[in-house]
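Fill in residues.
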């Protein structure tokens, strides 16, 4: 079992920055990637950024490319999402999740952290 705990959300003005963290505990094993998702009220959940845990390869949604940076601290089992040049449309609950390469779906999810960007 893997537990994921997000932190770092809050209220920020448009143009500002926030850094989200996702601390993982338990037996994560190997051969997996981690993703940051977000969901705004009345909208579908959106995959924002992905990173392969071992190799560090990344991918981003077009809506955040050039503004968000995903990274990981392997010794501390922590995932980060640096969010710069925030816009009101970035307002959402942000979740981290784990998906193993052998599986089609994300298996483990955090509880989410609220990000609110005011105009």
């Amino acid at each position: 079992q893997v537990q994921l705990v997000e932190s770092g959300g809050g209220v920020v003005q448009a143009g500002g920055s926030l850094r989200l963290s996702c601390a993982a505990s338990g037996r994560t094993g190997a051969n997996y990637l981690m993703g940051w998702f977000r969901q705004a009220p009345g909208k579908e959940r959106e995959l924002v950024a992905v990173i392969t845990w071992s190799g560090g390869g990344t991918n981003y949604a077009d809506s955040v490319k050039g503004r968000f940076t995903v990274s990981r601290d392997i010794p501390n089992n922590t995932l980060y999402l640096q969010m710069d040049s925030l816009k009101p449309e970035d307002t959402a609950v942000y979740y981290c999740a784990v998906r193993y390469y052998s599986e089609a779906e994300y298996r483990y999810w955090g509880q989410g952290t609220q990000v609110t960007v005011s105009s």
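The mean pLDDT is 96.
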